[in-house]
Design brief:
Layout (H helix, E strand, L loop, with lengths): L6 E6 L5 H13 L6 E6 L20 E2 L2 H6 L2 E9 L2 E2 L1 H7 L3 H6 L6 E8 L6 H14 L3 E2 L8 H4 L9 E4 L10 H29 L1
Parallel strand pairs: 1-2, 1-4, 2-3, 4-6, 6-7, 6-8
Antiparallel strand pairs: 4-5
Helix pairs in contact: 1-7
Length: 208
């Protein structure tokens, strides 16, 4: 990855692996666009036990995000399983540490999207996606959902919304991301990368 190449930060929290799988599909969509890279990052869990300390590097999967990942990204895809119709606490905890970026306007005019996974079909996917975009709007980001020219939106029987990609994991969280859900993740990553490339160029021209 070149330091000068715009990148999409795919920032997620995953407990059972479904959200992580979606993140990888979004990354594939991002990297299908020439001139844009994907950077996968996750966040550590939070604990009610103050003494609980996780290792600095996860045993597997993406490394933990820091504020510099957000500061320098050209776009953001934010992913979380649903917790009572909202994002999971670890992701919310990380976003609550981004006040310095907000004060400096570091994310203004950068495109963003959200994605989520639930155990049940009507388990709060859309409310989760809508509430996830609130901090992104406070940061001045440009929200990008999934338009209906993506035909998988019309044929899916499980996940997939115009507000962002989604997945139904099943009561035991063991249902794999299906064909339509994967297609929508890929499409969302591809759209985000196209917007990232265009808006990155616009910001560079404004600085010149």
């Amino acid at each position: 990855m070149s330091d000068s190449t715009p990148f999409v930060l795919i920032l997620y929290y995953s407990r059972s692996g479904a959200t992580a799988d979606m993140a990888r599909q979004i990354a594939a969509g991002v990297e299908s666009i020439t001139g844009v890279d994907a950077r996968l990052r996750t966040v550590p869990p939070v604990s009610t036990t103050c003494e609980a300390v996780d290792p600095e590097i996860p045993e597997e999967g993406a490394v933990y995000a820091d504020l510099e990942d957000l500061r320098h990204c050209s776009a953001l895809a934010l992913g979380s399983p649903t917790r009572f119709g909202n994002m999971a606490a670890p992701l919310k905890y990380f976003l609550d540490t981004t006040s310095s970026l907000w004060m400096n306007g570091a994310l203004i005019d950068k495109p963003a999207c959200a994605f989520t996974s639930t155990s049940s079909l009507h388990g709060g996917q859309e409310s989760t996606l809508l509430t996830m975009l609130i901090p992104l709007l406070h940061h001045g980001m440009v929200y990008a959902g999934i338009p209906y020219n993506e035909t998988a939106l019309l044929s899916t029987q499980t996940g997939g919304t115009p507000y962002g990609a989604s997945h139904v994991a099943g009561a035991r969280s063991d249902r794999s991301v299906d064909e339509h859900e994967r297609a929508l993740c890929f499409a969302q990553g591809k759209r985000l990368a196209r917007l990232a490339r265009a808006l990155h160029k616009m910001r560079q021209e404004e600085k010149a």
